[in-house]
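Exercise 7b. C-alpha cells:
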C-alpha cells in the first residue's frame, strides 16, 4: 500500500533532554473511570438507569474514588441517573462523581440541577482545539476558542458561588467542587496553543497549589507513537506556567492499538491522573484499558490501589451489563491468557508450579510464560495447560495429575503425550480434560485384548513357625490370549511375581518387569492403588502399562496386563 501523499508523519515536539526514559512508575495514579460516560455512549444498546446503578456499584467495589457518571445535560436518562445516585445516597463519602459539560451556559445550568445535593463533584468542561476541528466544526480562531473556554469557566464559577450561598443559607453543607478542563484532541493540537488555552482556563479558575484544578490532556484520537506522546506530556509539564497549580490527567484512546503504552509513558513523563474504562471499552477501538494498566503495575511490584482479585466476576458483570463480549486473548481477563498449548511451554509451567507447590521455589513469582500468578486475580491453575495437536509430553501428564490424581512416572510421559497428541491431531481440535482421561483410560485401563483375565485367585504359603523359609504366594488364574483360554498357576514372592511366572505357560511374549511405580488415589474407603509397570520383552521392546484397583497386588497385575495389551 502506498499512502501517496495522503498521510504525513506526526511532527514531534522539540524536546532534546527528555527525562521520562529514565523514570519508573513507583505509585498508582489517581484513577477516574469514564465507563458510565465514554464507555456507555459507545454501546450499541446503552445501559438504562438500573444497569448504570449496578455498574456504578461495581466501580465503587473495585475501588475507584473518581467516577465520571455522565453528561447530565445531554439526555433525560443521564440526568435522572445522576439524580438517583444522589437522592438514594448511593455515592460513598470518599467517592467523587464527575460530570461532563460543554462550555455553554444553558448546558451548565442543567448540569448544576442534576448535581444538586452531591457531596463531592468534579465539574468537567471541554472544547475542541485541534486545527481540523477549528476549521471544520467551529470556524473559529484560536482567540475565539480561548474566549469560549474562559467564558465557560466563569459561568461554572458563577453557578458554584450561587449554589454554595444557597446551601449555606439553608444550613446545608455546600458541595465540595473541583474543576477539570480538557482541550479535546490535545495530541492533534499545536502544543503551544494547548498550553495557551489551558493557561487562560487556569487563570480564570484561580487555581493554587492548595486548590489545584485538573488539566486533562486527551489523546482523543491516537495519532502518534508512545514515545512522541510522552514527549508531548513532558514538554507540557516542564513548560506550562502554573504547573504547580494543576493535576495533569491523561485520557487515552486506542486507535493505533498503543493506548496502554501511551498511558504508561505519559505517567513516566509527569502525568498524575488517568481516565479510562474497564477492559478498554469506548468509542471506535476503545478508551484506555484501566484493568491492564493497573495489573501491569501490579506485576512490577506497585500497588495499583484497585481491586481486581476476582477478575472473572468483574468481567462477567461487565459483559452482563454492557453486552460487550470479552476477547479470549484480552490481557489478564481473557479465557485463554493463562493457557498453554505448546508442549515446551506446558513442560516449563508444570515444573515451575510443582516446585512452588512443593515449597522449593522462592516467594518471588518466576513461573515461565506467566507474567502474573493466576490466583492473584481469582483464576485457577487447572485451566493453564490445555491439550491440542501442538501439545507436548508434559501437558497431558499435568492434566491427568492435577485433575484426576494420576501421577504417572516421568519416563512414561512421552508415550502418554504421543497417544493424546495423536487423538487431538485426528480430531483437529482441543481436547477437554475429561477427554484426555478417557483416551488415557481407553489406551491403558480398559483393554482386554489380546490378554484378558477372566478369573484370578491367590493363596499365601507360610513356612513353619520359626523357620527361615520366605513367604510365598500361590497364584492361579484363567486367562484368554488371542481368544484361547488358559488355566495357569505359579508361585512367587507376591501376587505380581506369581502372575508373571504363570504367564510363561501361555503363548504371550516373554518379558521381565524393568520398572514399577505405585501410589494411592482417592481418600478413605474410596482409596485405590495406581500401578505403573514397564516391561521389557525378549526382543528388547519396552512397553508401559497402568493398573487401577482397590487391591494393591491386583493393581500391579492389571498394569502388566495393560502393558501386554498396549498397541
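Sequence design result:
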Amino acid at each position: 500500500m502506498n499512502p501517496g501523499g495522503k498521510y504525513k508523519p506526526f511532527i514531534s515536539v522539540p524536546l532534546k533532554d527528555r527525562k521520562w526514559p529514565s523514570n519508573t512508575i513507583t505509585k498508582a495514579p489517581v484513577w477516574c473511570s469514564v465507563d458510565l460516560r465514554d464507555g456507555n455512549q459507545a454501546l450499541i444498546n446503552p445501559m438504562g438507569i438500573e444497569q448504570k446503578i449496578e455498574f456504578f456499584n461495581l466501580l465503587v467495589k473495585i475501588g475507584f474514588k473518581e467516577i465520571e457518571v455522565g453528561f447530565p445535560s445531554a439526555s433525560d436518562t443521564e440526568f435522572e441517573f445522576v439524580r438517583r445516585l444522589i437522592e438514594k445516597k448511593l455515592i460513598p463519602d470518599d467517592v467523587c462523581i464527575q460530570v461532563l459539560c460543554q462550555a455553554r451556559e444553558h448546558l451548565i445550568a442543567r448540569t448544576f440541577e442534576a448535581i444538586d445535593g452531591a457531596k463531592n463533584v468534579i465539574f468537567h468542561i471541554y472544547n475542541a482545539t485541534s486545527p481540523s476541528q477549528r476549521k471544520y466544526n467551529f470556524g473559529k480562531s484560536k482567540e475565539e476558542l480561548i474566549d469560549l473556554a474562559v467564558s465557560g469557566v466563569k459561568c461554572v464559577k458563577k453557578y458554584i458561588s450561587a449554589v454554595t450561598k444557597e446551601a449555606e443559607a439553608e444550613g446545608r453543607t455546600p458541595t465540595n467542587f473541583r474543576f477539570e478542563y480538557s482541550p479535546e484532541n490535545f495530541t492533534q493540537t499545536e502544543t503551544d496553543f494547548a498550553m495557551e488555552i489551558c493557561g487562560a482556563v487556569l487563570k480564570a479558575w484561580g487555581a493554587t497549589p492548595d486548590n489545584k484544578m485538573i488539566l486533562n490532556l486527551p489523546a482523543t484520537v491516537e495519532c502518534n507513537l508512545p514515545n512522541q506522546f510522552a514527549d508531548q506530556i513532558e514538554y507540557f509539564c516542564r513548560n506550562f506556567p502554573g504547573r504547580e497549580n494543576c493535576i495533569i490527567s491523561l485520557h487515552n484512546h486506542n486507535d493505533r492499538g498503543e493506548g496502554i503504552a501511551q498511558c504508561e509513558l505519559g505517567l513516566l513523563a509527569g502525568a498524575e491522573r488517568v481516565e479510562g474504562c474497564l477492559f478498554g471499552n469506548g468509542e471506535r477501538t476503545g478508551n484506555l484499558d484501566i484493568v491492564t494498566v493497573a495489573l501491569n503495575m501490579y506485576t512490577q511490584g506497585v500497588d495499583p490501589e484497585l481491586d481486581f482479585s476476582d477478575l472473572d466476576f468483574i468481567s462477567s458483570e461487565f459483559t452482563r451489563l454492557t453486552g460487550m463480549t470479552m476477547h479470549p486473548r484480552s490481557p489478564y481477563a481473557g479465557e485463554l491468557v493463562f493457557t498453554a498449548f505448546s508442549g515446551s511451554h506446558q513442560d516449563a509451567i508444570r515444573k515451575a508450579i510443582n516446585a512452588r507447590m512443593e515449597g522449593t521455589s522462592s516467594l518471588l513469582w518466576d513461573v515461565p510464560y506467566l507474567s502474573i500468578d493466576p490466583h492473584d486475580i481469582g483464576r485457577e491453575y487447572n485451566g493453564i495447560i490445555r491439550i491440542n495437536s501442538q501439545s507436548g509430553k508434559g501437558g497431558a501428564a499435568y492434566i491427568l495429575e492435577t485433575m484426576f490424581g494420576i501421577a504417572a512416572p516421568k519416563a512414561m510421559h512421552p508415550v502418554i503425550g504421543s497417544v493424546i497428541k495423536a487423538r487431538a491431531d485426528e480430531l483437529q481440535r482441543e481436547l477437554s480434560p475429561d477427554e484426555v482421561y478417557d483416551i488415557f483410560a481407553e489406551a491403558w485401563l480398559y483393554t482386554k485384548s489380546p490378554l484378558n483375565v477372566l478369573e484370578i485367585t491367590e493363596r499365601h504359603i507360610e513356612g513353619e513357625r520359626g523357620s527361615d523359609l520366605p513367604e510365598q504366594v500361590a497364584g492361579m488364574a484363567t486367562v484368554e490370549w488371542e481368544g484361547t483360554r488358559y488355566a495357569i498357576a505359579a508361585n512367587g514372592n507376591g501376587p505380581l511375581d506369581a502372575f508373571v511366572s504363570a504367564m510363561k505357560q501361555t503363548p504371550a511374549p516373554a518379558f521381565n518387569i524393568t520398572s514399577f511405580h505405585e501410589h494411592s488415589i482417592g481418600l478413605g474407603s474410596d482409596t485405590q492403588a495406581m500401578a505403573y509397570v514397564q516391561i521389557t520383552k525378549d526382543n528388547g521392546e519396552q512397553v508401559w502399562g497402568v493398573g487401577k484397583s482397590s487391591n494393591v497386588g491386583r493393581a500391579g497385575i492389571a498394569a502388566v496386563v495393560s502393558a501386554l495389551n498396549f498397541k
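Instructor comment: The chain has 17 helices and 14 strands. The first helix runs from residue 35 to 41.
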